[in-house]
Amino acid sequence: MKILVCFKAAPNVEMLLEEDWVINNELQVDTSFVRNDLGSYEESALEMALKLSDASDDLGIPLELNALTVDGSGATPILKTLSALRFATVVRIQPRNNLLFQPTAVASIISQYIRQHALQDVVLLGRQSDIGENAKTPLLAAEMLGWPCITRATRIEPADKKHLIVTHQVDDGYAREKVRMPCVISVGDAPCTYLRKPTLRDRLDYGKKDIEVLTMEDFQLPAETEMLTGLEILHHERAGVVIEGKSPAEKAKVLYEEHLKPVLSGKEVKR
Amino acid sequence: MKFKCILNGWAPNVKAQAEELNSFMNSFLGNGANPASTILFYANHEDRHSLPGLVPTECAEFVRIDRCQPETILEALQRIEDKEDTSLYLFPAGFAGAELAVRWAFRQKGSSLVQVEQVAPREGCLIAKKKAYADHVLAAFRLTRQPFCISPANGSVDRLPIAARDNLQIIEHDLTGLREDAFARDSQRIPAEQAKDLGAGKFLVVGGRGLGSKEHVKQLKDVAAAMGAEFGISRPVALNAWGPMQWLIGVSGTIARPDVCIAAGVSGAAAFYAGIEKSKIIIAINSDPQARIIKAADVAIIDDYKTVMDELLKILKPIKPAI
Ligand SMILES: Cc1cc2nc3c(=O)[nH]c(=O)nc-3n(C[C@H](O)[C@H](O)[C@H](O)COP(=O)(O)OP(=O)(O)OC[C@H]3O[C@@H](n4cnc5c(N)ncnc54)[C@H](O)[C@@H]3O)c2cc1C
After folding, report:
1. A154 and A256 in one domain?
2. Which B residues, 34 through 63, put their C-beta within 8 Å of a C-beta on chain A?
3. Does the beta carbon of A260 lie under 8 angstroms from any beta carbon of chain B?
4. The domain spanning residue B164 has which CATH number?
5. Same domain, B168 and B204
6. Parallel, antiparallel, or unpaired: how do β-strands B59-64 and B203-207 relate?
7. Count of CB atoms within 10 A of residue A146's CB?
8. Range of the structural domain that residue B136 is part of
9. Are B125 and B35 in contact (CB under 8 A)?
10. Interface-testing mutation among A24, A38, A164, A263, with chain B (most B C-beta atoms within 10 A)
């Protein structure tokens, strides 16, 4: 069973200060000076793939883990970590320009990679990237491949060589289903899926492996039908009145007397 | 611009979805100005009688299918919409709506946008806005290829009750037995732990990563319950399994509209804040004076949340002995 996890490193924008939020001429916010982290859904996807690999080992089902990113060289440290975590191939496709708001292009590159370079049984992606937030790439990849898609997965278990058992969020809770491969799985809010750390030994033994880098010469891009035309920074300021006091007890008293008492006694609250 | 609402009658919250679409239509597509109809999917004969009450438009098509899987709905749509000249499809905000919008647009060679906050039809195109950059920015997109397929953002509009209609025009389709070859089998439903409408309470307490442990989450929940408040959590708390995902507040969970919200040990990230920004009063308790939530709150206490809550308990105990 071959599993491809597609991921993207994203700048941690929670580190930006109020004054850093500026829109430049290319209709982007400059985030080049903040650290790149794994997108939160992609991190879950990678850890879920590793958990699936552990469980498949236990059942004697052979499984190969692969990772792909369509991104600049900023993703290299993460790719090295994935090598150390024993992903069989780690590939980076270098885009010509920023594809932040071009999910159709990204999905097209992913599906061409799978068709022309490395056929897979399952493609695992985060449901939404932290910065572009398009929430479309897994769905478009499934359509382009002509494969079914399971969305908002929170747990993936092996069933046999041709099937997986996938738990995923639905409108009224969760559904747990036996799913036939090939398929695309988009990962949702999955508890306990922080990416594990490779051992030092594995970093030395596997983490030094070269990363395969492909250029866009191998890929054709479709026309985007949704064009970004403007960005507007959102501000969330309120009065921010800080309750002063010598001790937590004093502060709690003011909080109760001035703000909570009216609520607890059922008085109407106005903004 | 001719448009259609698509509703999934299988979803337990279909009424809320229909009311949200009703409100979205009214806000952005001109009340009655554009010719509109609704396609409603359902499975059981017993549900048929309640469908007219869910229709936010003058015309409707009721489509009976076997399974609520997106694959089946897409195939059914393909059958009934084959020769249609619809310009805009409006899907609901739930999980399935966002999925269907993207996949349907792809199959129809149209364009799509999900988690949409606002739309404005223009000559030959649609301008739609949604949040980006971890919800710090509102991004505007021009959709150029019809049909435009849209799914609103969770909680982007208030619900608007659906007016009863005597003259509803209905077309019926029976598409049961459509897709034998289901790729997912042995489906087992696991209902949400909290079916209650978390967003509807008047008083909400939310705990963030600053709570530090599962035990502290439980303690704060008990305090909230004793004060008569609903209790919610931020995403890291849910991802650490300190509380169930159904308690999640924010863009990925519930958008709450309480009178008063106490946010304890949360930093106020934009994706979280969207879930409490409709509160009339926001009270933040955070040990870090630089935390974003301080400026985004009406009132703030800069201190350890637990000490403050313990002190608050001491005050409340004589008044509310149940605590
Ligand atoms: C696409 C997308 C969707 C998302 N959806 C959601 C969502 O729906 N809901 C959501 O919550 N997040 C969501 N997030 C994540 C969000 O961006 C933040 O990562 C998250 O909200 C942070 O949670 P937090 O404030 O609890 O944790 P942190 O950011 O770690 O903040 C913890 C806070 O606790 C304070 N603290 C620590 N100890 C104490 C103490 N003893 N007393 C008082 N204060 C203390 C700290 O000063 C800090 O400010 C989403 C992210 C993305 C990219």
Report:
1. no
2. none
3. yes
4. 3.40.50.620
5. no
6. unpaired
7. 8
8. 3-174
9. no
10. A263
